[in-house]
Design goal:
Layout lengths: L15 H22 L4 E9 L2 E8 L4 E6 L2 H11 L2 E3 L4 H6 L4 H11 L6
Helix pairs in contact: 1-2
């Protein structure tokens, strides 16, 4: 093999790389199911939640949105790419304008603002 050739080795079962790849595949499948249910495509933004959490915000082509919290930013980004969703570095205005907020979200926001139930 020359200096410019690369190989793609399959990680050993049980190795850290194999665990990461399984996590990426699992999260990507969730993303794919969401996008399939909401127009067949979508956009995603990865947001910092805390030291041990990253939030994936998904917006389907129909404007529906959802989120998923995962442990690692790199895993989140890899899953988004694997699922074939457009990854944005920040939440652009055009994407925010596309989000369709339902009555459920409005009632939750109003309830929290007015001291309503949080469950």
């Amino acid at each position: 093999m020359t200096d410019t050739e690369t190989t793609t080795a399959t990680p050993e079962p049980g190795s850290p790389d194999a665990r990461v790849e399984r996590q990426v595949r699992r999260i990507a499948k969730h993303i794919e199911r969401f996008t399939a249910a909401h127009g067949g495509g979508g956009d995603a933004v990865v947001e910092y939640v805390g030291r041990d959490a990253t939030r994936i915000v998904l917006v389907g082509t129909d404007g529906a949105w959802g989120d998923q919290v995962v442990r690692d930013r790199d895993i989140a980004r890899a899953a988004i790419v694997k699922a074939g969703v457009t990854l944005h570095e920040e939440f652009p205005n055009e994407l925010a304008a596309k989000v369709r907020t339902t009555e459920y979200e409005w009632s939750r926001m109003a309830g929290l603002q007015l001291g309503g139930a949080q469950g």
